[in-house]
Design goal:
This protein has 132 residues and is mostly helical. The chain has one domain. The chain contains five helices and four strands. The strands form two sheets. It has a two-stranded antiparallel sheet with strand order 1-2.
């Protein structure tokens, strides 16, 4: 089934995917619904990756405002980041970890990128608020 854009142009047709008699859910709507069915493994890995980036930004801002310093801040970030994502994919989504290469593969998906983002946000906020 296709839908023609508002200007009626045939060049700008959008595919409307129909699965099992209904419209296909977006990745984010599936990400926020419990026990969603993930037909595409890469789609779920993308959601895990982007959730991790969101967590990194939020924790970086909080750590910069609080102000946390040093190894304690890094250690707490690592535990919270890994813990939240583990609870997300094992309890909320209840995916079979073995389909994605095991628990460790899902736990480390996008971790280093989120760690770098966390450090940048933490340093910027800490420096802006607490450095004379």
């Amino acid at each position: 089934m296709t839908r023609i854009s508002s200007n009626g142009s045939n060049k700008k047709k959008e595919e409307v995917h129909v699965a099992n008699g209904g419209l296909k859910q977006s990745a984010w709507s599936k990400a926020l619904s419990s026990r969603a069915v993930w037909d595409d493994k890469d789609e779920f890995l993308d959601v895990v990756y982007w959730f991790r980036q969101i967590i990194a930004i939020i924790l970086g801002v909080i750590w910069g405002i609080v102000p946390l310093k040093g190894f304690l801040g890094i250690a707490i970030f690592c535990m919270v980041n890994a813990g939240v994502l583990y609870v997300y994919f094992s309890s909320f989504q209840q995916v079979d970890e073995e389909e994605y290469g095991g628990t460790w593969e899902l736990t480390k998906e996008g971790f280093m990128t989120s760690f770098a983002l966390f450090l940048v946000v933490w340093i910027i906020f800490y420096t802006a608020l607490h450095y004379d």
